[in-house]
Amino acid sequence: MSNTELHYKPITEQAAMLRGGELSPVDLTQAYLERIAALNGELGAYITVMGEHALAQARQAESEMSSGENKGALHGIPVAIKDIIYTDGVLTSGGSKALADFIPDEDSTIVRRLDAAGAVLLGKLNLSEFAIGGTIDHPFGTPRNPWNTEHTAGGSSSGSGVAAAGGLCAGALGSDTGGSVRGPAGFCGIVGLRPTYGRVTRHGVIPMCWSMDTVGPMTRTVADCALMLNAIAGRDALDPTSGSAPVPDYTATLHEGVRGLRIGLPTEMFDFEGLDADVRESVMRAVSVLEERGASAEEMSLPTSANSGAVFIATADVDAAAYHSDRLRTRGDDYDWSTRARLESAALTPAWAYLRAQRARTLIRRELTDALDAYDIIILPTGPVAAPTIEASTGKPGGYYQGKLDLGRRRYTSPAALAGLPALSIPCGFSATGLPIGMQLIGKAFAEPTLFRAAQAYESATEWHTRHPTV
User: Fold this and answer.
1) What is the pTM of this model?
2) Is 156 a catalytic residue?
């Protein structure tokens, strides 16, 4: 088996090879480290590669396995995490020069949970500065889409999308406030989950917006996404916002199919003038695949959610400005121009506008929860277009993250974030220019098993997940 074939194997297959003795954790880790060394300069996925640490963990996993210990499906599996997640003694930069010297003295709960699951931590992944989209000058290199390096990988979990799609780790963790897992997953052709708000702890994670931030897995298959969620989900006494709902085995119902599943298709998301025809057609074909397997789908309406982009900005950016206010005063020149302009603008938002946004958020939450009383899942594109060029996707005037285009694209990922609901992006095709297209599934609170079940049914009937970039 070539290293490239090994890099792209799903976690489920790698885990079986490790348990069967066909592969050692050390050899698997070394293979990924060699690939990172060869490609990271071109792709900009990693900020920090933790090579010695990863090999030490791999040797420990190898010793544990040889003595019969089995910590589960991630035992000996090399993964990587977004660089807003604290790692004891290792740079946690937030993708910013303002934190270029920040070394935490503790691990986040998520890192501790990955360690308990026996995972091997390869390193810290690149991102839009402080998990805020639109960065113009990435201080640690510009993340590039592995399908076409002139195009963006999305934001803000850009490095996570690049690493998972490009075979620079077996699976990655990103964070999603208003689409920062789902957007890069859609642009890079992988699976990405925004869990229910509170499903995964955020202790030791640099915040953007306290009431919307989530941490979620980004993988090459649905089953791998479920496995990673198994490892990190659950109540954390150190995070008062984490939920106490029982954590199921997310792999248990993966193959139950979609017969009888009710799907809602919001007209506002399919009739949007900014939606590319390639994207619309790919998602509608994907819905047909689910219908052929016993699901039912019908058009419905989410009129308030169509304006969710403005509500998101008026909420998340104001919260972010509050968090960054002191550092902006002392180290403002260390921020990217786009990030700084966005935060300083948000700091000038009047209280009445913020409060109106909260009222609108309540209406959006109610609209979605009412819709999910009638439907098991809501399906819509992950975004209106395939990945734009890097030049067009920064915070420069006229770009993807500016003006009407920015608010228009946000109607796709903001509703689930504002409502605190789980949402999953899965690849469903390619544009005429050969770039991936993502389909998004939204479900009820803590209904991740339903999303996984529907996504697995689609993945099993198609071959998009078997395609990989040729880097």
Assistant:
1) 0.97
2) yes
